[in-house]
Amino acid sequence: MTNEIRRVGVCGAGGTMGAGIAIVVARAGFETVSHDLSQDALDAAKKQISGFFGKSVERGKMNGTARDATLGRMQATTSLDALAGCDLIIEAVFEDLRIKQDLFRDLDSVCAEHTIFASNTSTLSITEIASGCGREDRVVGMHFCLPAQLMKLIEMSPGMNTSQQTFRSAWAFVDQAGQTPVKTQDKPGFILNALLVPFNNDVIRAVEAGVASPADIDKAIKAALGYKMGPCELLDLVGLDTQMRLCEAFYPVTLDVRSSAPPLLRRMVAAGHLGRKSGRGFYSYDGNTMFGG
Amino acid sequence: MKYSITRSGVSRSFPEGDAFLSAASDDSADVIVYLGANGLSGPAYHPDNAKAAIVVELDIECLGVHTGEQSGEEGSNVVGFARYRNGEDAPSGLVELVRQPNAEESAIFAARQVFEEAGLEVVVCADQAGRIIDRLVRPKYNAALRFLDEGLASAKDMDMTCRLGLGYRDGPIERVERGDLARHFKITQALFETYGTPGYAPARRAIVAKQRKED
């Protein structure tokens, strides 16, 4: 037996990931309440969402009537109280344990008994996020991939106290939303980041060890394995500072040396070579010339 | 660029019927490609400074095994290479060209030209264990095999996650199993002996596969 989910709240919906999740939810026919502390962020997200659906119509993926109906299902608010009627809340707020714990604790006093809380965390423990929120049995991991509005995969993780009914309901929602759920244990990085973060560190260490240039490593990985993007290109896209934060989240928990920040990564971040966002990472983006790292 | 081929064993890079074999010239060519020498200890080629390049196929060993090493000063017109291949899958389009510190630039240029004219993609890497691909992907396969043992997720879900979430052509479990877990053992054992870091230590499933092959 699963609870029926009709109305879904998305916290942190002023951010890129939150806005993408809101698109997925509304597109699937659910009433969607986007929440963020910043009205400006919500306004900016609304523009992005309208633009996204506009392109969907242009490309023939949906018609104008469906677009208008979808946008009509979406509302935005800076008030947590407006989430009171939601059957499911998906949080995509800043990746900080205390912030997520506080949010769920606050939501517990606002939402109905049956409301499920889902966390989009990519690195934190679902059990720890749920701890002390008052409804530990109704908290589940629901990790969307970037960009959420395009990627189908969702990593679903039960915490130690998550009830089977909660997990079934959340899984059914993901199915209904047209996404592809995979079940993972509540372990650091689940599947994706548990494989990707150490791999990216290995790449950085290989550059530092003089094995090959970033460009040749990218070329090799794409040619041999068919990856769409080389690891150095991906790191530049994601941001070297983000990789650093992931290392800092993973290593103290796993003590896996592959997850520890390589010295070159630390130097690049200290030098402000953060990737595309700063114009320079493993590559330089003013003329797309290679930077040796 | 004309090249001749000298074969001393089975080539993993260019199996029988590969167009690269039939396009070879006679011994007067500027470049000599030595195939099937991998796994041999000691020189797998005849030095010839008159050639633009001597190109030696490698397996998991370093080029230094064949050339000898001189305190970081090694290098000549001899370069190594391996065409990446997962187990018995068809060889990929990637050639890893291995250079020693003082390799002649003209030799690297000539070797690159030979392979690129054959339609292959060429990258240059240092003479370090695992070159680029094995050095980077083997620890990831080890991690995936360990996650499988620890129940993080099913093999099917891990593979699907990598395909859908990262855009990989295939997942780590299906790829390492297709490539032969016993070969994965052989490669990771060699990497572990070289680097000594736990990420290269052969995964339990690779050890089992290797032990079963020995029975």
How is this structure best summarized?
Chain A is an alpha/beta fold. Chain A contains eleven helices and eight strands.
Sum up the structure in keywords.
heterodimer; A: 293 residues; alpha/beta; Rossmann fold; N-(1-d-carboxylethyl)-l-norvaline Dehydrogenase, domain 2; 2 domains; eight-stranded mixed sheet; 45% helix; 13% strand; globular; disordered C terminus; B: 215 residues; six-stranded mixed sheet; 8 helices; 6 strands
Question: Can you give a write-up of this model?
Answer:
The complex is a heterodimer of chains A (293) and B (215). Chain A folds into 2 domains: 177 residues, NAD(P)-binding Rossmann-like Domain (Rossmann fold); 82 residues, N-(1-d-carboxylethyl)-l-norvaline Dehydrogenase, domain 2, CATH 1.10.1040.10. Chain A contains 11 helices and 8 strands. In chain B, 39% of the residues lie in helices and 15% in strands. Chain B has a 6-stranded mixed beta sheet with strand order 1-2-3-4-5-6, with helices on one face. Classes of the chains: A alpha/beta (293), B alpha/beta (215). Chains A and B meet through β8, α7 and α8 of A and β6, α4 and α5 of B.
The general outline of chain B is: globular
- How many H/I helices of chain B? 8
Classified in CATH, the superfamily of the largest domain in chain A is NAD(P)-binding Rossmann-like Domain
- The helix content of chain A, as a percent range, equals 40-55%
Largest sheet of chain A: 8 strands, mixed
Number of strands of chain B: 6
* CA(first)-CA(last) distance of chain B: 47 Å
